[in-house]
Design brief:
16% helix; Umud Fragment, subunit A; 12 strands; elongated; alpha+beta; 3 helices
Length: 200
């Protein structure tokens, strides 16, 4: 006579899931709410993604490149020449533009004398070596002194960029953050090169 099949206690993983209770719905709502607030806080105060809508920063940045903008460190480490920044342009750029976010490269620092002539940018009389340009500038500008707590910003695509040579200087309080990392497209994933300049 065959032995009867052994009997095992029911396994926990075969039990039906417990029915959600009012408390579990409250906990889930709290978790989701906290996650949303955390994401909004990070985006508002720490970092946020941005995409490139124009060709003004060619060849460095292309249309639809996706970047992470660092909104914290420039408050503690001053902006330097060559930083790529996102900002709201001054009112002098036009009311419709003043509400938009632009992205350009920092060229002139507070107190410096900047001039564009003979297809070069001069800072305190010394020409900058700019190997990141789409083309050298075909316009004249300045000389002008960069005001305190302000910056001169220009696009890398010098002759096709609505930037500081049209509307002047960007006050520090209109800067949103510094471009830190390109995360899309994946084939160009990584940090943005920072040029090394000779001291003007």
């Amino acid at each position: 006579m065959a032995n009867p099949a052994p009997s095992y206690p029911p396994s926990d993983d075969l039990q039906p899931p417990p029915k959600p209770t009012a408390d579990s719905w409250v906990d889930a709502a709290k978790t989701i709410g906290f996650s949303v607030l955390l994401a909004l806080g990070i985006r508002t105060f720490i970092a946020e993604p941005r995409y490139i809508p124009s060709e003004s920063m060619l060849p460095t940045l292309r249309i639809n490149d996706r970047l992470i903008i660092d909104k914290v460190t420039y408050h503690f480490n001053p902006l330097t020449r060559g930083d790529i920044v996102v900002f709201h342009p001054p009112e002098s750029s036009g009311q419709e533009f003043a509400r938009e976010a632009f992205i350009k490269r920092v060229i002139g620092l507070p107190g410096e004398i900047v001039e564009v002539r003979n297809s070069r940018v001069y800072v305190n009389g010394v020409p900058l070596t700019e190997n990141y340009l789409e083309a050298t500038p075909d316009y004249q500008w300045g000389p002008q002194v960069v005001p305190e707590n302000s910056y001169l910003v220009l696009g890398d695509n010098r002759n096709d960029s609505y930037d500081g040579h049209y509307w002047g200087f960007v006050p520090k309080d209109r800067i949103i953050g510094r471009a830190a990392v390109r995360f899309w497209p994946l084939r160009r994933l990584g940090g943005l090169d920072h040029p090394v300049y000779a001291q003007p």
